[in-house]
Amino acid sequence: MMQSISDKLFMGSLILLMISVVVSGIGFQFVNWRSQVTDELDAETNSSSARKRAVMERQDKSLKRVLRSYLFWIAIAGMLVSILLSRL
Q1: Cα 36 to Cα 56: distance, rounded to the nearest angstrom
Q2: CA angle 20, 72, 55 (to 5 degrees)
Q3: Which terminus in the chain has less CB density within 10 A, N or C?
Q4: Which domain of life is it from (predicted)?
């Protein structure tokens, strides 16, 4: 009984975690990612280091948005609760 509840809670939390990462962090940036990066680089030089820096800054911003998301922390808490339930 507890194992079944724990499994369902873990799978629900995993789905919520994936949704929160897509909505909060990545979003739908992958659709027009190349145009966004080239737009950011218009003001800068087109050297390889400037391109890498722009990509790294965008990734850092996405990670910060994910870590500030309530859905992310609810999903993590649900996974921890499911692990505790499976130990009982």
Answers
A1: 13
A2: 65
A3: N
A4: Bacteria
CA-CA distance, 21 to 16, in Å (whole number)?
9
Q: Which two tokens stand for residue 39?
A: 């737009």
3-class secondary structure, 56: helix
Name the token pair of 48.
Answer: 């390889």
CA distance 73 to 20: 9
Per-residue pLDDT of the chain (88 residues; tens, 9 = 90+): 888 899 999 999 999 988 888 887 766 555 555 555 555 555 555 567 878 888 788 877 877 877 788 888 899 999 999 999 888 8
How many C-beta atoms surround the C-beta of residue 72 within 10 A?
A: 20
Cβ 85 vs Cβ 5: under 8 Å: yes
| 67's tokens | 């870590």
User: What's the whole-model pTM score?
Assistant: 0.65
Helix (H, G, I), strand (E, B) or coil at 68: coil
